[in-house]
Design brief:
24% strand, six-stranded mixed beta sheet, alpha/beta, 187 residues, 6 strands, Nucleotidyltransferase, domain 5
């Protein structure tokens, strides 16, 4: 399978989120605690917004601006997780929902395979990607979700490391012919 080259700029992104409230037992709603994004053609510039440092509405507006500029977005499990949670947050803050966009998801657009875990961390290791995710213990997640200064540093390190690793993972999967073509995501 060939890489997509005629879609314009490609935005690679990831979010972190925490439980906010329970809408039914054992089913929490989510609150975005971080968004990191990077243009695939310029990985030297990383955008990162953090709840507790940045105004949540401004964080969402800034991400939406990048999203609107992109010809395509990419990330790991973004079609079922990140994009939906962002849309919910946009609606909650009275902002327009995300428009349909060409998207390539390295979990959901991975070729069919049996008995092979499709976590970003596992796939990156399998594909020889040297960049690592920041492993977070439960204590570290608790600190991050409390939005303490140390927690904000952990969250920023985690979300930006995920984007850096993902960009290299996607490149490796494309070279190996293991990703299906992108499709339009509709919120």
């Amino acid at each position: 399978m060939r890489a997509v080259t005629d879609v314009g700029r490609i935005l690679d992104f990831d979010i972190e989120n925490r439980p906010l409230s329970y809408w039914v037992p054992d089913r929490p709603t989510a609150e975005i605690t971080a968004i990191a994004a990077c243009w695939v053609d310029d990985p030297s510039v990383m955008f990162c917004w953090l709840l507790g440092r940045d105004d949540p509405k401004v964080m969402l507006e800034n991400f939406a601006r990048l999203y609107d500029e992109a010809g395509m977005v990419t990330g790991h499990y973004i079609k079922k997780h990140d994009l939906s949670i962002i849309n919910g947050a946009l609606i909650e803050y009275g902002l327009p929902a995300l428009s349909p966009k060409l998207a390539q998801d390295t979990k959901l657009d991975l070729v069919k395979r049996g008995d092979l875990p499709a976590s970003q961390e596992n796939l990156a290791d399998l594909m020889g990607v040297k960049d690592r995710k920041l492993h977070m213990t439960q204590a570290m997640w608790r600190e991050a979700n409390r939005l303490t200064p140390d927690g904000l540093s952990l969250t920023e390190a985690r979300v930006t490391a995920d984007v850096r690793q993902h960009m290299k993972l996607r490149t490796a999967l494309l070279k190996a012919g293991l990703l299906k073509p992108p499709r339009v995501w509709r919120g």
